[in-house]
Amino acid sequence: MRFIVGAKDSFANETVKLHEMIREKGVDSRLKIYANIGHSFPEDFDEYLRKMLFY
Questions:
Q1: I need a surface site. Which of 9, 15, 37, 44 has the fewest CB within 10 A?
Q2: What is the DSSP letter of 11?
Q3: In a 3-state reduction of DSSP, which class is residue 32?
Q4: Phi and psi (nearest 5°) for 32?
Q5: d(CA 27, CA 39)
Q6: What's the CA gap between 15 and 5, in Å, rounded?
């Protein structure tokens, strides 16, 4: 699983908790937090997705 979350997202803490729970169950999960993103998708979100695929 891959998670992308913005540090400005009001759900960021919950996403981190979910990521940690999934990892504790042995699932390969990666989390990337971007400082400049909120809850909405930025115009260049496809670039964030590309980067996450190889993270």
A1: 44
A2: T
A3: strand
A4: -125, 125
A5: 25
A6: 7
User: Quick check: 8 pLDDT over 70?
Assistant: yes
Pair 4, 49: CB distance under 8 Å: yes
Roughly how many angstroms between the first and final C-alpha of the chain, as a whole number? 11
CA of residue 45 relative to chain centroid, distance: 12
The three-class DSSP label of residue 30 is strand
Per-residue model confidence as pLDDT tens digits over 15-53:
999 999 999 999 999 999 988 888 888 888 888 888 787
Question: What is the rounded distance in angstroms from the CA atom of residue 39 to the CA atom of residue 5?
Answer: 8
